[in-house]
Amino acid sequence: MTRFAEQRSAVRPRRVTIAQWPGIRAPRLLRAGTETETLAGYHATLPGPVRARVSLEELAAAAEAIDLRGRGGAGFPFARKLRAVAEHAETGGPANVVANGEEGEPASAKDRFLLATRPHLVLDGLLLTADALGAARAVLYVSEPRLAGIAAAALAENGHAGRVEVFLAPAGYVSGEETSVTRALNGGPAKPVDKPPRPYQSGVDGRPTLVSNVETFAHLARAVRLGPNLIAWDGAPGSPGTTLVTVTPDVGGATLLEVPFGTPMRDVLGHAGVGAPRALLSGGFFGGFVPQESWAAPIGHRLMREARLSLGCAALLPLTESCPVATAADLLAYFDRENAHQCGACFNGTAAMARAVARLRDGEAADKDVEALARWSTSLVGRGACGTLDGAAGIVAGLLGVYGTLVREHLAGVCPLCAGDPHDPAETRFRITWGDLFEEGEPLTRLSRLRRTHESAR
Ligand SMILES: Cc1cc2nc3c(=O)[nH]c(=O)nc-3n(C[C@H](O)[C@H](O)[C@H](O)COP(=O)(O)O)c2cc1C
Ligand code: SF4
């Protein structure tokens, strides 16, 4: 066993605790147990009989009433996307709808857990949308075979196996980007393409395509089934309801919570048992370092934007033992490995930033490295086909902006934290595996309408 493998096995498995936030008043989105909810169990959570269909206007109104914003990262208003797809479908033929359950973000566990435990809730949101749009195809896009099996079993149970396709994509950081999704569904590799056109204009089969995250569809189904008033029992003024948050520290277990909008980030960290970390990143690998004076910022898309922060996919990454410089090196190495190697600025720029920050971590950097990093952190922004390069540049900008003093100290030599860092450079310290969430060895359900993309397409 290598030194790194020994150290990694010492911190594995990284179990994920499902924590219940106190005081949520509406029926919860997050179930405590790891078993899969049955259709009867799902219906039992609803206050009335389930209407099979709602109109497009009713669906948009329900989404607007709870200010439903995408949970996949960008926080885009769902009703606006729905209307844009419907508008393009008037001329571009019937629309298609895709529920994005890829969860490429290593530090996030919410989508996989939600889909594994509440497949009927997610499928309800997907079916409501597909029917309201009169969609030609409704697709669930995942990369975890066990999730595909769970979804196929749920579809056999609810009688919609002929309506919803389950698509098994290759796993990867960029596989869940919306144009990767539509490209993979069109038979290509799961890699981003230049925009426009965006999927709402032309996506799967060249048709207007609504791609939304699986948690977004779950909140949509709740808005329709429970009603916006019940959802507004929780949350903040202008930001009703709750959202799923994964707290993934650099070492130790992670925590998955459902949190009312408006809850201070610091309280969420405290509830997850990491009340006083050394540093914090919000919004997953994309979001960047949060200055300490902003740790009390309220969770929410609009609320965090006001504080110049990003909720992203709602993964919070507190550092309890690691140095921010070593962490930035870890994330940049990850971006270097995981970018789609399509855009020169992205693969060359990310590799250069990763090398420079690794030199900084190892006490081998010179002033010119830091000057180059400062230049790249702005000049590379917007130069890739997808946002991955912006994410990498944002990590560098945050490191220099929030931890400028620490960076200067690293120029003077190796810091004790980095020297003792037990991290395996070939894998990010923040990854949550399926085995961290569920016991390994569960049998795969036989799939009905499952298609598998060719791994070589990656
Ligand atoms: C590099 C990259 C990776 C992404 N990965 C995912 C992903 O794994 N899952 C996801 O739902 N959205 C992902 N997104 C966001 C999608 O592009 C898209 O915005 C989202 O699925 C739309 O759903 P929403 O509006 O419900 O958030 C990614 C975006 C980028 C730029
Ligand atoms: S920006 Fe990077 S990750 Fe995105 S498509 Fe281009 S090379 Fe791939």
Provide keyphrases for this structure:
alpha/beta, 458 residues, 19 helices, 42% helix, binds iron/sulfur cluster, Rossmann fold, 12 strands, five-stranded parallel sheet, disordered N terminus, binds flavin mononucleotide, de novo design (two linked rop proteins)
Strand order of the largest sheet: 1-9-8-11-10
Low-confidence stretches: 1-11, 442-458
Q: What compounds are bound to the protein?
A: flavin mononucleotide, iron/sulfur cluster
For the record, the CATH architecture of the domain at 27-230 and 441-457 stands as 3-Layer(aba) Sandwich
Distance between the termini: 30 Å
Note the total helix count: 19
CATH topology of the domain at 27-230 and 441-457: Rossmann fold
Just give the CATH class of the domain at 27-230 and 441-457: Alpha Beta
Profile the largest sheet.
5 strands, mixed
Mean pLDDT across residues: 91
Cα Rg:
22 Å
The share of residues in helices is 40-55%
**Beta strand count:** 12
Task: Please state the structural category.
Answer: alpha/beta
CATH superfamily of the domain at 27-230 and 441-457: NADH-ubiquinone oxidoreductase 51kDa subunit
Shape: globular
Strand content: 5-15%
